[in-house]
Design goal:
Blueprint (H helix, E strand, L loop, with lengths): L1 E6 L8 E5 L10 E7 L6 H9 L3 H7 L10 E4 L9 E7 L6 H15 L6 E5 L6 H14 L17 E4 L4 H22 L7 H15 L2 E5 L1 H6 L3 H7 L7 E8 L7 E12 L8 H4 L7 H15 L5 E11 L11 E3 L5 E3 L7 H14 L4 E6 L3 H7 L4 E5 L2 H14 L3 E3 L4 H4 L10 E2 L8 H10 L7 E5 L5 E2 L9 E2 L4 H9 L4
Parallel strand pairs: 2-7, 3-5, 3-6, 6-7, 10-11, 10-14, 13-17, 14-18, 15-16
Antiparallel strand pairs: 1-2, 4-5, 8-9, 9-11, 12-13, 15-18, 19-20
Helix pairs in contact: 3-4, 4-5, 5-10, 6-10, 8-11, 10-16, 11-15, 13-16
The structure holds ligand BES, manganese (II) ion and zinc ion (ZN).
Manganese (II) ion binds next to loops.
């Protein structure tokens, strides 16, 4: 017996997911994937395949052809049972196996399976996993079937028609699908070039998501932003012929008056650097500079679809940083919405100028705690590498909650210090209240956070600098290159525990 659980909306997300309690070898799959732990006897579907093949997998392991290391895969191109072929998938050490690993192992398997056109795949990694593992695994499977080649005639990934999963946990499958599709939404938007997604079209997309998800939405256009005195955000937008937008999305699943989580995303749809122009190599991937806003939008979609009992408001500050005739200039002094004046020392430090005003709006709209996400500094990538995001905060308990959520989802996040006596002086200006860069380039991720801190008052706030992990130049076993959708899952996890 197999049960049809859910059917997705479109494209790669359109895969049908079926839950089964049938033994693996009785499914007439085009490919059957089985999981193998490193250094352990075969179990579950892998043991069944091994028995059917008269111990062939055990012999492969003995000859050290395959060990079951994390992300290791090996195809067995022969029919086994009713399956036309088998894929061995390494799960790593059992004591290291958690929700993050379930996500990445499943994504690895589906990435391998979708390299060719296959209609029916059975993913038998789930060996009686706990619900949170099944959920993460299913999310990973959805993410693993989509790549960044939006404009290739011949796609690298071929979406499956049907994916069969051995569980009777319908809830975990349904929520895993919601989360995986949200991650893919973020990736798709990040991967869309600046001529497709710019402030106005991002706002249109947000309106579409809001309508489908039952979110309240407000879109501030350039006139409204002017009226609202968003002088810092608008100064960045002036260099482009594309007008700025501010998107506000509201989800009220919690009690009225309950603490409201504010999620603020940097949405620079293209960052040329402005007059402080980036070199070509640095500019090439700057369509990714809207990743914070994409992550916010995707998380809001998932939080609404999961019907979480929380109040969340999302904000996206949307501009294009260009060099047009009206572009802001070095030495300009801007007046932010909060009234603070900012001396511009580098037009490429534009993200903090955008966020200064968006954070101020978030306070006014009633966010009682704020998490912002921004591809803010190359310095953060220098400090932590490309896979790890930096967390900076004015409130340790809130930061601890965000770090805990990231640990659950397995999205690497590391806190950087904010010592006032060390860093506060570095953004002082001789001309205005503050300047938009630190003294020299040292500690650049932190001086950027120090700038943002000026605009959140006493409200608990965590800043996530996702400049490294938001966009990959090279693929990983579990992910194609391009937008990663990293931190959508952490935001969902944070919202889940919000009232706890
Ligand atoms: N969007 C960039 C940061 C970035 C770099 C994101 C690499 C993703 C990958 C940001 O606007 C920027 O240009 N920051 C400057 C700040 C500097 C001028 C103080 C930087 O990091 O060089
Ligand atoms: Mn920049
Ligand atoms: Zn930027």
């Amino acid at each position: 017996m197999r049960f049809l659980l859910t059917e997705g909306p479109s494209g790669a997300d359109n895969v049908q997911i079926e839950q089964t309690e049938q033994p693996a070898l009785e499914i007439a799959a085009d490919a059957l994937a089985v999981g193998i732990f490193d250094g352990e006897p075969l179990s579950g579907a892998a043991a069944a395949v091994d028995a059917e093949l008269k111990g062939a997998i055990g012999q492969l392991i003995e000859r050290q052809e395959f060990a079951g290391k994390a992300y290791e895969t090996a195809p067995l191109l022969v029919p086994v049972g009713k399956a036309k072929q088998v894929l061995l998938v390494g799960l790593g050490k059992r004591d290291k196996f958690d929700a993050g690993m379930a996500y990445r192992a499943s994504a690895t398997a589906v990435r391998a399976l979708t390299g060719k056109k296959r209609e029916l795949a059975a993913l038998f990694l789930d060996d009686g996993w706990k619900p949170e593992l099944t959920e993460s695994g299913l999310a990973g499977a959805i993410v693993g079937s989509e790549g960044q080649d939006l404009y290739r005639a011949e796609k690298k990934r071929h979406p499956l028609g049907t994916l069969i999963w051995p569980t009777n946990n319908k809830e975990a499958i349904a929520s895993g699908r919601i989360i995986g599709e949200a991650v893919n939404l973020a990736r798709h938007l990040v991967n869309s070039p600046a001529e497709d997604i710019y402030p106005e079209t991002f706002a249109d997309k947000a309106a579409e998501v809001a309508k489908a998800s039952g979110l309240e939405i407000e879109i501030w256009d350039e006139k409204r932003l002017e009226k609202e005195r968003c002088g810092s955000l608008l100064a960045v937008a002036k260099g482009s012929h594309r007008p700025a937008r501010l998107v506000i999305l509201k989800y009220s699943g919690g009690k009225p008056g309950a603490p409201t989580l504010g999620i603020v995303g940097k949405g620079v749809t293209f960052d040329s650097g402005g007059l402080s122009l980036k070199p070509s190599e640095g500019m090439l991937t700057m369509k990714c500079d809207k990743a914070g806003a994409c992550t916010m939008l995707a998380a809001m979609q998932a939080i609404a679809a999961l019907k979480l009992p929380v109040n969340v408001i999302g904000f996206a500050g949307l501009v294009e940083n260009m060099t047009g005739p009206a572009a802001m200039k070095l030495g300009d002094v801007l007046t932010a919405r909060s009234g603070r004046t900012i001396e511009v020392h580098n037009t490429d430090a534009e993200g903090r100028l955008v966020l200064a005003d968006v954070l101020n709006v978030a306070l006014e709209k009633g966010a009682s705690q704020i998490v912002d996400l921004a591809t803010l500094t190359g310095a953060c990538v220098v400090a932590l590498g490309t896979e790890v995001a930096g967390a900076m905060t004015n409130n340790q308990p809130l930061c601890d909650r965000v770090l805990a959520a990231a640990k659950v989802t397995g999205e690497p996040l590391w806190q950087l210090p904010m010592f006032p006596e060390v860093y506060d002086d570095l953004i002082k200006s001789e001309v205005a209240d503050i300047k938009n860069v630190g003294e020299g380039r040292w500690g650049g991720a932190i001086t950027a956070a120090k700038f943002l801190e000026q605009f959140v008052g006493d409200t608990p706030w965590v800043h996530l600098d996702i400049a490294g992990p938001a966009f990959r130049d090279k693929p990983k076993p579990w992910s194609d290159a391009g937008g990663s959708g990293q931190f959508v899952r952490t935001l969902v996890e944070l919202a889940r525990g919000w009232n706890a």
